[in-house]
Design brief:
Blueprint (H helix, E strand, L loop, with lengths): L1 E3 L5 H13 L4 E3 L7 H7 L7 E3 L5 E3 L1 H12 L10 H30 L7 H21 L12 H16 L10 H11 L2 H4 L13
Parallel strand pairs: 1-2
Antiparallel strand pairs: 1-3, 3-4
Helix pairs in contact: 1-3, 1-6, 4-5, 4-6, 6-7
Bound molecules: glutathione.
């Protein structure tokens, strides 16, 4: 199978980490959503990553839908989430919070990247920054040591660490040192895992000039 997208996309990286963690072999298409937009659009009409091209040519889009497929492929005993019940709901809720943080961080990055300074909306930025900070605070309050829930990695941890990796790369002001100690510990623990090391963001995965 082929994973389409660069690892500076936290949702692409999230899928890559999950593939590595499950031991599912894959190759990569590192097309850029900006520089190679026509190529990405031919795979996903939304011109977004990640996409996963299965061995028979079927194309899956959206990280949650892709991970749902990977969970099914490895089975409930190995999936990074229980198949039913309270713990599943909690992990999905925390994953949704972390996904929302990534989404708000992305909006903030794009706001300044695509708008010249006079057209950046301080009202919109303040709203997004408030939503992002509240999401991070909610996750910080839930965080265990080092994993969010129990004594094992879950999809929530993977999404949180990938979102933090993105903020460290593109939006340092949203995740200043010392502000979120438990989430920092969680992300550090994640980044030390072989599955994360195998999906490190390479220096050539950059955004094009604004
Ligand atoms: N819900 C989607 C979101 C995908 C997404 O936002 N991808 C970003 C890169 S991190 C993208 O392709 N952005 C380009 C665009 O939306 O124009 C998922 O989880 O896969």
């Amino acid at each position: 199978m082929i994973l389409v997208g660069q690892y500076d996309s936290p949702v692409t990286r999230r899928v890559a980490v999950t593939l590595h963690h499950y031991g599912i072999p894959f190759t990569r298409d590192t097309a850029s959503i900006f520089g190679d937009a026509a190529h990405v659009k031919a795979i996903n009409p939304l011109t977004r990553v990640p996409a996963l091209i299965l061995d028979d040519g079927e194309v899956l889009i959206d990280s949650a839908a892709i991970i749902d497929h990977l969970d099914e492929a490895v089975g409930p005993a190995r999936a990074l989430i229980p198949p039913t019940g309270y713990d599943r709901r909690q992990i999905l809720q925390a994953t949704a919070l972390a996904y929302g943080c990534f989404e708000k961080a992305g909006v903030l990055v794009y706001e300044r990247h695509f708008h010249p300074a006079p057209h950046v909306s301080p009202v919109w930025e303040a709203r997004c920054e408030g939503q992002l900070a509240a999401g991070l605070a909610a996750l910080e309050a839930r965080a265990g040591n080092p994993w969010l829930y129990g004594d094992a990695l879950t999809h929530a941890d993977v999404m949180i660490a990938c979102a933090i990796g993105y903020m460290n790369l593109r939006l340092q002001r949203a995740f200043p040192p010392g502000a979120y100690p438990r989430l920092t510990a969680l992300a550090t623990a994640c980044e030390a895992l072989p599955a994360f090391i195998a999906a490190r963001i390479s220096p050539d995965e950059t955004m094009p000039a604004a």
